[in-house]
Amino acid sequence: DKKVVAVSIPAADHGWTAGVVYHAQAAAKEINAAFPDVEVVVKTSPSAADQVSALEDLSASRKLDALVILPYTSEELTQPVKAIKDMGTFITVVDRGLTDASIQDLYLAGDNIAVGANTAKFMIDKLGGKGDIVVLRGIPTVIDDERIKGFQDTIKGTGIKVLDIQYAHWNSDEAFKLMQDYLAKYPHIDAVWANDDDMLLGVLEAVKQSGRTDIKLALGGNGMKDIVKKVIDGDSVTPVETPYPPSMIKTAIYMTVANLIGQAPVRGHVKLDAPLITQANAKEYYFPDSPF
Amino acid sequence: MSIAARIDTDRFAAPGDALPVAPVLRAEGVSKQYGTVTVLSDVTLDILPGEIHAVIGENGAGKSTFMRLLSGYIEPTQGALSMAGQRVRFTRPDQAQAAGIALVHQEILLAEALTVTDNLFLGRELTKGGMVDDARMRRLAAAKLAELGCEVPATALVHDISLADRQMVQIARALLDEHRVVIFDEPTAVLTGGEIERLLAIIFELKARGIAVLYISHRLDEVQRLADKVTVLRDGKMVGTYPGHTLSQIDMARLMVGRELAALYPQKQATRTNQPMLSVLNAMVPGFVRDVSFSAHKGEILGFAGMIGAGRTELFEGILGLRPGTATVELNGAPIRIRSQREALDAGIAYLTEDRKGKGLLLQERLGPNLTLSALASFHPGLVVKRAREAEALGQAVSTYDIRLKSLGARAGQLSGGNQQKLLLAKVLLTDPSVVIIDEPTRGIDIANKAQIYGFIQDLVRQGKACIVISSEMQELVGICDRIIVMREGRISGEVSGETMTESQIALLATSERAHVAQGGMK
Amino acid sequence: MTALTQSVPARNERRYQFSWADAGPFLALAALLALGFLVNPDFLSATNLSNVITRSAYVAIIAVGATFVISSGGLDLSVGSMVAFIAGITIMFMNMMAPSLGLWAIPAGMAIAVVTGLLCGLANGVIVTVGKIEPFIATLGTMGIFRALITYMTNGGTIPIDRSLREAYRPVYFGTLGGIPIPILISAIVAVLGAFVLYKTKYGRKCAAVGANEDVARYSGISVIKTRTVAYVIQGVCVAVAAICYVPRLGAATPTTGQLWELQVITAVVIGGTALRGGKGRIWGTIAGAVILELIANLMVLSDFVSEYLVAAVQGVIIIIAMLVQRFSK
Amino acid sequence: MTALTQSVPARNERRYQFSWADAGPFLALAALLALGFLVNPDFLSATNLSNVITRSAYVAIIAVGATFVISSGGLDLSVGSMVAFIAGITIMFMNMMAPSLGLWAIPAGMAIAVVTGLLCGLANGVIVTVGKIEPFIATLGTMGIFRALITYMTNGGTIPIDRSLREAYRPVYFGTLGGIPIPILISAIVAVLGAFVLYKTKYGRKCAAVGANEDVARYSGISVIKTRTVAYVIQGVCVAVAAICYVPRLGAATPTTGQLWELQVITAVVIGGTALRGGKGRIWGTIAGAVILELIANLMVLSDFVSEYLVAAVQGVIIIIAMLVQRFSK
Ligand SMILES: Nc1ncnc2c1ncn2[C@@H]1O[C@H](COP(=O)(O)OP(=O)(O)OP(=O)(O)O)[C@@H](O)[C@H]1O
Ligand SMILES: Nc1ncnc2c1ncn2[C@@H]1O[C@H](COP(=O)(O)OP(=O)(O)OP(=O)(O)O)[C@@H](O)[C@H]1O
Ligand SMILES: [Mg+2]
Ligand SMILES: [Mg+2]
Fold first, then answer.
1. Where is this protein found (chains C, D) (predicted)?
2. Mean pLDDT across chain B, nearest whole number?
3. C103/C106 Cα distance (integer angstroms)
4. Alpha carbons D122 and B329: distance in angstroms, whole number
5. What does the DSSP 8-state code read for residue D200?
6. Which residue stretches of B48-99 are H helix?
7. How far apart are the C-alpha atoms of B401 and B211, rounded to whole Å?
8. What are the CA-CA distances from residue C74 to residues C142, C275, D133 (Å)?
């Protein structure tokens, strides 16, 4: 009988999640072709509540041998995932850990706090420890919260001053408008942090339109191919990038399948680092075919 | 003015002595102004218990305004009301209702999405143990409707019933509770013979029970039969109050308009030809009309008579693509297909609806756009609406059809009922049709304007058009038509012309074998 | 003339006549169940169906309230963010009370939820009726307000419910009574109450009258303002009940809780046969509509036909087809 | 008899009379500008105002179309995702044609955009009118469909416009003509055309008639189906024009493009004084409404009063207050 691996991820509602969906589907296709005994089923959900529903649906109709999940939020998905674990399913959690760590057989995490902190460190260095910056936040969720927290904790005590911080919902349009308004409001801005590359695109466009030269740095995050390309090209305003590769889902699926077909018993915690992408190493992070 | 004044003093000087009974409702010097426009000025009236008091006047004289004022729908700008000697002030209709004053509106005011029963009991539902008692309300509703001779099921949606039935529902609603004063504002405008008789009987019953009745109608014969007293309004002012039975219809008409009147029905013209213009074969309208064939001739005024529910409106709506139906139609001998009102208008067939508020006019819109709405294509060649032409056409229509209004910038809904009807007539004729079908041409039209409209209809046939008149006033049909087709239960039951064209013959054709045909079952 | 006035006995009232229009949503439901079985026989398994119906409970409960608002001629776009706001308030209150009240914090929190819902509904109602603002705009405004408040309360993150309460509260979503999941029972109770109020009380009549024709209602002595405001209050209370069932499911409130539920709710009501222009509400149709929506989503997960990206498109198509079927089955 | 027909000379139509109700949105706009100046004098700087008005251009252009749909008695919730879908199609087409057509790919792409918009609008119109489905539900369905299609086309990511076209196309958003930003000019042209069609042509009359009373329109020989369908087609074309201006701004289409614009559009139309129940459209009010919305958002950022979490709440409150002021200034 085929072994069933269910993959539950958020629906593609902005660039990064689109990357997750892309890599998850790529993994599913490769594995379904390569291993006739394994069936990987990918389901996306547009909200936490829908993700819980999807878990119920997936487990109601068949027995799952393994579940790979990128939870919307930790709190809300903990109980439902536990319910599936109690049926004897192998649980792999990606990105956001559940509140009860004992549920996770395998945990593959990106580090959102590090994304914020590493960006902040680079900024402090580059600006010489002081300067006026503006920040764009995403959608009010855990990821956004953690990144901002990592960033703010790091700049605490330095001469970096956050002039303003507002939501732009990980949306280029809103980021464009917000940046226009920041530019109108503040005659001098040293740097911008957009916390996500979709938003960075809007920011750059607004800065370009204003023709202002005071902005020395405009940084994003997540490793979108267009931005990585800028790093490769040695862009002076965006010289670095923080990866938060959506491909982590693919890694997780492969590790889970490997575990399932007994090639290698993989368990425990894997924390992906968030190293700075610089011109030196940018080529490793450049995937021109990915949608993200 | 001088004529009316003379009539006043000469013949109908008010008695002037003390009233034997205390008035149940008294309006003292009431006026109503809309902005700078005075619609009603200084009207004083006593309404006695057990008395039928008719209020007559031309279209736009302010009758409905006065009635709305008495029953709490609007408040007077000056003057006051008193009941049994006590000052009263109504700010909402339900307060007047609670005080025992009920109004049957000139317009139909019912919630279409609700059932007949729901409408009857709206705002005063009967309950049993906290729950609405539907079964009982349905029973009472059915009983009340049966009393009025109305056949609609109490569970039907108002949306699905005919205009006449809606009017009966409205009357039933007013009569449901015991009242001290019942006001009827043109209750018979949409009714036919049987219903009218039934209603008049009920009004006499009310009178016998000591209830005061205020009655508005343009049908002066009814007024003459009913009224103990007649109050005449002209241009918002009182002309006077007269004892009813001494007043002839001619007198009433004179008092209303303030000058001498010509004959009501024009001399019949021999414009009729034998050349069929509109021929209809085997018209079918599911649920309403079965297998009707007729033709209307060039220069002819063809009448359609029948009881309420005979299906005349449905017949023509079916033919003109306004509701599902089938018919073979020929115009001037050439077969045509009509799937929508547009195609009918393009072919030169115009239909004037009986429901002017619901289907005829955009009440919130100004007069100009209303006037040209059907004729957009022909009246405004090209893309653009020509405002100047429109204004000119409006001015012309206002004078031709004697539409009384306070300002050309008014909205259609602000015109009095009768003037709305005249605007609608102007609107339909603007398309310059060769066949004109008029459903209830004089519903709610005062006697002077009626004569005018008959004149317009004659003008039409004189120009070589064919004119079909659907009317529930047999007298009117007899007065103006060359030929009358009588319908009963969705079929043609006979035709009268020349010698046989009498009211009694029509009534016979419209009603006999009624029960028998009903057995056959239409639906 | 007397012969004329003889009235023919009124046409027989067919009181319990079968109406295709009323049956529409239930037929659509049946068709969907059949389709589901063809696609994946597991679809009709007891577990799956019970899961799906349990899930549809929130939307169903809120939609019962929406049936009142819509049939009274209003609209409420704020229900989704109101769920989040009420859930947030409730959890915060329960957590605060847990140390002193122990498990009694749960019923106390539920009471707070109902009161909050009532006040939110009242606010919506007053803005719409007394403020005379188009319901669409007024509730779009309060939608933003509630959403912002929950974001503020959570600081953009999550408010989880206290661990000490979690196990005790869980059964409200996950428990069963006589084999029937509690949320299904609650939504059945809400529906029965809703149907009773809408069909059997004077208030229900007023509601329909106000929605059908404001002028007629006003002339009949019905207060349009009061009636419509009460409809919004009922809506608020229904949202509170939904929030009470929702909290144990995910154990937390976040700024994204309840997002776009307003659209699902309105869709459920309309699929159920209530006209958006008001005048007639169909509680049972609404319930069927809520279940239909959840079934479609479930079917998408259980079937493997459509690309992940196209799920929303297929849902849109199915809804349109369902409405078309309903229209032309008349 | 002749004496009777003598009509009293009717008072002259006061054609250019001042109406507080019509002036409402413009007064609100002026009040907002004054408030903005008080909060932050930079608010009235030329750059800021020009930025804000340019940004409001999309919503304004789409809202002109929505004024037709709404005044004809319809509603269109799909416009936001339609923008994304049209932008996607347009970019894909331009990129495909760039090698062979060079810069001519840009006008070719624009033509395709208009054709696509027209077809999308037609689809909406036909579903609503011929299918007789509530506009709310029908366009909620197509909203899902368009959104899913753009997600599918982009694989959930981004479709950027070809580098070779980018610079040539940029001025359509960033360029100026006689000092006025191009999007402002385009939206002014669209508004003038819209006002002309709605107020001066026969079609405009029909549109208002159908929205005011379907029966009257039908009995006057106006095809309700055709008129309302054309309104949706106009809406589609307006969306296409907005998409054409939108593409050069960020040079890409993504699945989040145009999200929630439908709500902004409807809000703009209603703030502008058009009633959602149809019958009367106010193009210039709509334009003012679109600018008002963008100004409020701008004001939120330029002022330092509110926590980032509460921005949406304050916006909601301002919109409600604006509507209240309008209501009671009558
Ligand atoms: N809301 C309003 N604003 C301005 N004028 C009004 C308004 N309502 C009615 N009028 C005007 O008041 C006058 C009297 O109208 P009313 O409806 O009372 O006439 P009526 O005597 O009932 O006529 P009819 O026999 O045609 O029904 C008309 O000239 C009408 O245009
Ligand atoms: N939806 C319906 N269901 C059942 N009966 C209906 C429905 N609508 C109308 N009727 C009935 O159909 C019949 C024909 O309607 P209607 O009264 O309009 O005919 P008419 O000859 O044009 O009369 P009128 O004199 O009012 O113009 C009536 O008996 C009416 O009650
Ligand atoms: Mg009148
Ligand atoms: Mg008729």
1. Cell membrane
2. 84
3. 6
4. 34
5. I
6. 63-70, 93-98
7. 39
8. 14, 11, 19
D211-263 pLDDT, tens digit each: 999 999 999 989 999 999 999 999 999 999 999 998 988 888 888 888 889 98
For B58-118, list the strands marked E by DSSP: 78-83, 86-88, 101-104
**pLDDT computed for residue D62 by the predictor:** 96
Q: State the pLDDT confidence band at C329, using cuts at 50, 70 and 90.
A: low
CA dihedral (A224, A225, A231, A233) in degrees, to 10, reads -160
pLDDT tens digits in sequence order for chain D, 330 residues long: 333 333 444 444 444 455 656 777 888 888 888 888 888 888 888 888 888 899 899 899 999 999 999 999 999 999 999 999 999 999 999 999 989 988 898 999 999 999 999 999 999 999 999 998 889 889 999 999 999 899 888 877 788 888 888 888 888 888 888 888 899 999 999 999 999 999 989 999 999 999 999 999 999 989 999 999 999 999 999 999 999 998 988 888 888 888 889 988 999 998 888 888 888 889 999 999 999 988 888 888 888 777 777 877 888 888 888 788 767 665
Query: What are the structural domains of chain B?
Result: 22-100+179-258 (3.40.50.300), 108-177 (no CATH), 275-348+433-523 (3.40.50.300), 363-431 (no CATH)
The answer to the question of residue C78 being in a domain is: yes
CB contact under 8 A, D310 and C148: yes
pLDDT at C6: 35
Write out the residue range of the structural domain in which residue C125 sits: 57-283
Taking the C-alpha atoms of residue B436 and residue B427, their distance in angstroms, rounded to an integer, is: 12
Q: How far apart are CA C13 and CA C15, in angstroms?
A: 6
Residue D298 domain-assigned (yes or no): no
**What pLDDT is recorded for position C18?**
54
**d(Cα C81, Cα D259) in Å, to the nearest integer?**
17
Query: Of B287, B416, C250, whose CA–CA distance to A75 is shortest?
Result: C250
Instruction: Report DSSP state, residue A112.
Output: H
Closest residue to B369, CB basis, from D11, D14, D205: D205
Q: Which atom of ligand 1 is nearest to the CA of B416?
A: 17
Q: List the one residue out of B10, B518, B35 whose CA is nearest residue B307.
A: B518
Please identify which residue in the block is written with the tokens 């222009």: C277
CA-to-CA distance for D330 and C177, rounded, in angstroms? 57
Q: Whose CA is nearest to atom 1 of ligand 2?
A: B160
Coil/strand/helix, residue D54: helix
Q: Are D68 and D127 in contact (CB under 8 A)?
A: no
Which pLDDT value is given to residue A39? Answer: 87
Q: Is A195 on the interface with D (CB under 8 A)?
A: no
Residue B243 CA neighbour count, 13 Å, CB half = 8
The answer as to whether C179 is a domain residue is yes
The residues pairing with B53 across neighbouring beta strands, listed in sequence order, are B214, B229
A21 vs A14: CA distance, rounded Å: 11
Three-state DSSP at B91 gives coil
Q: How many domains does chain D have?
A: 1
Q: How many angstroms separate the CA atoms of C216 and B122, rounded?
A: 9
The type of residue at B59 is: N
CA-based nearest residue to B184, from B152, B219, B147: B219
Residue C163, pLDDT score: 82
Q: If you ran DSSP here, which 8-state letter would residue B295 be given?
A: E
Angular region, B292: left φ>0, alpha ψ -120 to 50, beta rest:
beta
Q: Copy the structure tokens of residue C97.
A: 């009370």
Across the interface, whether the CB atoms of B384 and D222 are under 8 A apart is answered no
Asked whether residue C8 is assigned to any structural domain, the reply reads no
pTM exceeds 0.90, yes or no: no
Are D136 and C315 within 8 A, CB to CB?
Answer: no
Query: Which D positions 121-150 lie with beta carbon below 8 A of chain C?
Result: 127, 131-134, 136-138, 140-145, 147-149
Helices and strands, number each (H, E), in chain C: 15, 4
Residue B304 DSSP SS3? strand
